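Q: Is it fine to ask for two folds in a single conversation?
A: Yes, each is treated on its own. Send the first.
Q: Here.
A: Result:
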Amino acid sequence: MNDLEKKSFYSFLGLYIVSSFFLLSLTGFWYYTAQKHALEKETYYKLEHIADKKSGEIIMAHMHGTPLQAMAVPKEMILALINTQGKVTEGRLVDPNMHIRPGYFLVDGYNVLISDAPREHLNISYVAVQSDTLKAQLHKLKDSVLAVLGIVAFAIALIAWVLSKLFMKPVHQRVRQIERFINDVTHELNTPITSLHMSTDQALKRGECTAKTLNNISISTKQLYDIYRSLTYLNFSSRKESTEVVDLKEILEKSIAYYSGLAEIKRISFKTDLEEMLFAIPEAQASLLFGNLIGNAIKYSSPRSEIEISLKDKVFHIRDHGIGIEPEQQKEIFEKFRRGTSYSGGFGIGLSIVKSICSQYNIGIKLDSIPAEGTEFRLKF
């Protein structure tokens, strides 16, 4: 990835992780708080239940004049009975110096409930029930929540990494296509510019311009103009051009004549069968449509071969006898920046422009190609 891609990747990754961790932290805090309150209430009700039960036993023993029996309590709880003089008559207090008063307290890590329910029956004023289980439960709860949050955070980070990769994949592909496109355009521009430079340099040295030099200049200029037309179409294809009824035969003949010089370099001839055909399309786009197909046919044809072109019964045919297109490449050949082969250069926009114009003016397009034998395009107007 280049610097811009890395910046986008880590920005998306960071934003996803930070926002997810923030929500995860809120969820963890909410869950811990809710469970903590539930455990606190549960502990309180347990202490209260034991205190009320013991108080009931005290009152019943006093009313019936029977001895007070020792009450079995859970081993994690400590029971204490406090008489009217404030002395512990049974059990013990976790803090002997604690202030004795009815209520619910936290003393030295113990939850303490002091109940005055005995009402001084059997000379007992208070029942104190003490337990330190809540502290251990909260510690265990905290460890569990942190462990779950850690696992979920790891999963989120992993998912964020995968999603960031998926998010950046089409961006990365597009950047690669654009970079390759720029390199291809640079390479394509280099050939005609070099030819123009050499031809003009020779003409200046000789003091005259031969027919061959003029032809080289003409071909190079046309190549530059073709690149310019294609780039202009890409840049302004969203703008609507005024549609007019034109004779496709005339435009096609001009296109064939335009590319004849380029074809002569490879000793390629044209076999044509054209008839007059009227169609509503801007002349510039019709010329670009035919030009891309003819230019491609010349580029990928074998030297000293023939290109067959026909325009009859509302159908345009162009067939070359060149390298052809592999079947797996035929599915992607009309996509922008896609090239079926690296043979003879190109920068992967010619057929995408053809497809775009055909779609815009409802022109059917079909492709038949056999590797090492040739390619045929059919346009139905």
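Q: Second one now.
A: Result:
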Amino acid sequence: MKKYIIGYQGVPGAFSHRVLKDNFPNSHEISFLSFEEVFEAVKLGNIDYGIIPVENSNTGEINDVLDLLKHYNCYIKKTYILKIDQNLLGIKGSNISNIKEVFSHPQGFLQSRLYLKNKHWKETPFYNTAISAKHVYENNNPEYAAIGSIETASLYNLDILEEKINDNDHNFTKFIIISNKLSEKGNKYSLLFSLSHEVGSLSKIILTISKYNFNMLNIKSRPNKIEPWQYYFYIEIEGNELSEEIIKELLSNSIEFKILGRY
């Protein structure tokens, strides 16, 4: 079997790295500092696939990723759901009473907001939870803690000061696996639209999707960052083949139309 080259954002122990291992256990791994670097590597063909978190069940979508999907010619090959448990991690022998500063990806803070309330700890954002844990380990400071997974604690020889600190036990993150080629198989599609700012423009798109017997799974909007109060829409639909007829009709009712993935 081909040994794929897979890219992800972060370091070993990151949630993206767990998704990589679940889906490509025998792959060659390349880590990147940012999501955009993963998209760039996929676009250029330097890696076969990239692992990207796109949405959390409690805190919502990761907006930067939606913007990157719009701007890069990369396609969603597959989605993968991972249950997320956040834990408070510290160096060996440290204690919660000593903690003054906590490091995590912003999503780690958002998912653990109730636990962190009234703790009066300084919250310092990092690129991801695994890099945060690595930072705590390397600094060896009993006043530092990180929010991350149990696997990350083991990897970086940290103590688990408090388990499952996320607000909701039903805490899941959706990841996308991206490539530079659109898949020819699958009954789910991710689409992107930019619409004219007039009455009924969005309803025309929704009616077209319904007309061709597709089920709309979700819809999200983002500012287009060019014109104030103008938005683009990210839509996920499920059905049969995305025929030329429906594509033509969607194109006629939108300013910009892009197929982001089939899976």
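Q: Anything structural to flag on that second result?
A: Two points. The CA atoms of residues 125 and 196 lie 37 Å apart. The longest strand covers residues 75-83.
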